[in-house]
Amino acid sequence: MSKTSRIREGLITLFLPSNRGLLIDLFVFVLNLTVMLLLSRLFVDTIHRASAGDKTAEYVLFSMAVALFVLAPVGATLKRWSFHQRLKGTETGDWSDQLGGCLFNPIFYFCLTAVIFATVNAFVLQTVYGRKEPDGGVFVSSIFIGIALMITHTVLVYRYFSPPKKAPRSAFLRSRAAGMIGDVCLFANMVLFQLIWNLLSTIDAPRPASLFDFVSRFLILAFLALLLYFPPRMFFLAEDIRKRRTWLIILLANSPILLRVMLGIGSGVRW
């Protein structure tokens, strides 16, 4: 087999549905090496302009927050049927519904969703009422509506890991197109989380002064990775969590950020 044929075969294998986790990690790695730092600088600039009262910047941040709230459950719903049909009868298919309970507790994910909703809700109330305080009824109603939305969001996300008992009524949800659009939503969700994760690389952190400083910095980064990298990645862990290469590729995907922060190589952006 020629080198060109091997490369073509490797690319075909990479884009198989079973390798979506590997693909998203490599996708993130390339982003982190190329345009993500620039996007993070633009993100920081947007935050600065929003804090100065720029309405356009405020609406951009609001749209991003809404996308974080919507993309994951939409992607999970669209992809669920095709995902479980492909794994039906396999060991992974029998085990994947346990993933949420053993690795990502729904309560943890619910709390993360609550942070996102709080951001969206604060923006809406500020836009509608400005500097005036909203009525007590409005504020309480927004909280109850938010709790309902957060529960729905979490249920739809974790429902993805449970095999459906029957086929969806909608022909579209049973189609290949639904699964592909679901993947696009989940990839976009990962990009948004990466923007937040990459904010670390915009900080001019000092170089580690000692081994203790180096280790403690690594532990903090590992915790932040748990918060910001694994939630959007977990949709693809059901298939590859048992593969040794998975954790190495995940480390590779995050290595540009880890190296910048661990070694104190900032981007020069001032907060």
Write the topology of this structure.
Elements: H1 3-14, H2 20-33, H3 36-51, H4 55-87, H5 91-95, H6 99-102, H7 106-129, H8 136-159, H9 176-197, H10 211-228, H11 230-233, H12 237-240, H13 244-262
Helix pairs in contact: 2-13, 3-4, 4-7, 4-8, 4-9, 7-8
In short:
The protein is mainly alpha-helical and 271 residues long.
Q: Can you walk through the features of this model?
A:
- With 271 residues, the chain is an all-alpha fold.
- It is 73% helix and 0% strand.
- It has one domain (18-262).
- The protein contains 13 helices and no strands.
- It starts with a helix and ends in a 9-residue tail after the last helix.
| Average pLDDT taken over every residue | 81
Q: How many H/I helical runs?
A: 13
Oligomer: single chain
User: How many distinct domains?
Assistant: 1
Number of strands: 0
N-C termini distance = 53 Å
What is the SS-derived class? mainly alpha
Question: Radius of gyration from the CA trace?
Answer: 21 Å
**Biggest beta sheet summary:** none
Helix content range of the residues, please? over 70%
Poorly predicted sequence stretches spanning 5 or more consecutive residues: 94-98
The shape is globular
Strand content: under 5%
Give me the strand/helix succession: HHHHHHHHHHHHH
